[in-house]
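Re: beginner question about structure tokens

> Can someone show what the tokenized structure looks like for a real chain? I only ever see the sequence side.

Sure, here's an example I had lying around. Input first:
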Amino acid sequence: MLKKIIQEYQNLIGSKKDIDALSTTDHARLLLVSDSHGCRQILEEIIRNYGKECHALIFCGDGAGDLAYILNLSKTYQAFQEALPPVIAFARGNGDPSTYPVNVHFSLNIPNSQTITVNNQKILVVHGHREGVDFGLENLGLEMQLSECKLAFYGHTHIAREDRIQDYQIVNPGSCARPRGGQPAGFAIATVEKNFTDIAFIKMQKDLDGKQSYKIWQPIY
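And the corresponding structure tokens:
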């Protein structure tokens, strides 16, 4: 039976039961995706391949229509709903509206930023344009302090990277559709443990036979 799409009061998508379970679980895997820019089939393929093993999808903006598309897809196909992580956090990109229709009965409210609690850790999710990430991470770091988050995910630059500044960890998964800086298209998976968060960057490339392949890689910047 297909589950109902629910956007909770804190703007997270998922049931209260799943959101509460995520906040206290001892181990969680988060699928980090950003900047799909209308390439909804790419986002769909990532979720089909990696969503089932993850506890939450984190989408860092510039693809509100793509997010609405996968939500609609999950309402239509049981197999895809089973692949879609039970909790979804997202932020509004500079190319996204503040709301986006999913279907005639439901419109997605898209916040400029939001927090999600995972394994008793509060995480900040933003796109990054409002924080000026093109010019540095100082404003994002300040927002992390104000929201009492030691971990943040962002997009906007289309460049995958991980920064550790004192005890703050800041991660950009890159763009799954329009990479920049000579990087491949890709995304990331965050494994959130009690005392640390490990980031695995995954690049997407076509093999000689035309099939999509996924490989772990380490961005250089």
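Each token stands for a local structural state, so reading them left to right follows the chain. The CA atoms of residues 124 and 214 lie 27 Å apart.
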